[in-house]
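Standup notes
- DV: blocked on the single-chain target, sequence here:
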Amino acid sequence: MEKHACLLLSFFLFLSVSLSESCPNVEPVCGIDMKRFSGIWFEIARKPCYMEGDKFLGHPYSCVTHQYTELPNDHYEVFINARKGSPSGEFVHEIYEVNPDTSCNGTLAVVSKWPFQGAYQVLYVDVTYSHSLLYSCNSVLGVKTEGLWVFSRSPELADEVKANLLATATAKGISIDDLNHLVQDGCWRKSVDVSFI
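- DV (later): unblocked, structure below
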């Protein structure tokens, strides 16, 4: 089964790639209540990601969710569900583990998929923990690989809220010109039920 591993490969050439550029200097949100951050997030938009079927693969994933579950020792399991190409496409999934940084838990290090030991950052989460913005960037030998994800607790996110999240990204020097907006329509039996139709 094809793996959904975009977040796991954030420093390889599987995310949005730019040459001769450095990563923007961004600061993650610290002091996140990880118990409230846990649960299911719907992926509303993302930068192109080869491992999510974007670019040359031609079957971008839709109906993507990320479910965070607390594990012992303050680690978290992330279970990702998706459909390949469309809501009726092949079901794909991935499970990985993250460890929030002890000095700032808005940085989440992937700890269970050696050698893919990348990390990503929570750049924004609202006070109700209903939407968030995640980012990953690495620059090695003049090659920048980055990912950007817009998450929501429901399959739909108001245009104004999404615009504000993207404005946050651009204010931090992150380009959104190549952002993909995901299909979530027709994926779920109910807005609160993440079982696939």
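- Follow-up: The chain is about 10% helix and 40% strand.
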